[in-house]
């Protein structure tokens, strides 16, 4: 949600990929891809954003905390980031999502969005459940 220099962003992508591989993820057994190259993420985020009300997003504690670090202004990207997270989860019809305590409310938003979408358009998205980690 914060602008980055293109060269820094490219290096961050490479560093993150290297870290994932160093953790033991086997690309022969897992799909490893750059999410920003999949336009369906942004497309679904737009659709879900049209079903999500602004007051709900304004109540999220992460919005309040991070906005304070941006001179109380905040950006649209920061406000709608939880909707993009919901799209990331729902696009793949995920049923279980590993989250830390700080992301539980964002997952609850994804659950609510899935239920709202399903009620309006018919059963399509599974409602994802949290896998809470103590780490």
UniProtKB/TrEMBL annotation:
Source taxon at top rank: Eukaryota
Protein name per Swiss-Prot or TrEMBL: tryptophan--tRNA ligase
GO terms under cellular component: mitochondrial matrix
GO molecular function: ATP binding; tryptophan-tRNA ligase activity
Family stated for the protein in its record: Belongs to the class-I aminoacyl-tRNA synthetase family.
Entry's EC annotation: 6.1.1.2
Spans traversing the lipid bilayer: none
InterPro entries: aa-tRNA-synth_Ic (IPR002305), Rossmann-like_a/b/a_fold (IPR014729), Trp-tRNA-ligase (IPR002306), Trp-tRNA_synthetase (IPR050203)
Keyword tags: Aminoacyl-tRNA synthetase, ATP-binding, Ligase, Nucleotide-binding, Protein biosynthesis
A Pfam family: tRNA-synt_1b
This protein's record includes keyword Transport: no
Keyword Ligase: yes
GO biological process, one term: mitochondrial tryptophanyl-tRNA aminoacylation
